[in-house]
Amino acid sequence: MEELILARIQFASTTLFHFIFVPLSIGLVFIIAIMQTMYLVKKQEIYKKMTKFWGIFFLINFAVGVVTGIIQEFQFGMNWSSYSRFVGDVFGAPLAIEALLAFFMESTFIGLWIFGWDKIPKRLHLASIWLVSIGTILSAFWILAANSFMQNPVGFVIQNGRAEMNDIVAVLTNPKLWVAFPHTIFGSFATGAFFIIGVSAWNILKKKDLEFYKRSMTISLIVGLVAGLGIAFSGHSQATYLMTAQPMKMAAAEGLWEDSADPAPWTVIANIDVDNKKSSGRIEIPYLLSYLAYSEFTGKVEGMNTLQEKLVEQHGEGNYIPPVKTTFWSFRIMAGTGGVLILLSMLGLFFTWRKKIEKTTRYLKFLIPAIFLPYIGNSFGWIMSEIGRQPWVVNGLMLTADGISPNVSAGQILFSFISFSLIYTALAIVMVYLFIKVIKQGPNEKPKEDISASDPFSAGGITNAAK
Question: pLDDT at position 452, please?
Answer without folding.
Answer: 38
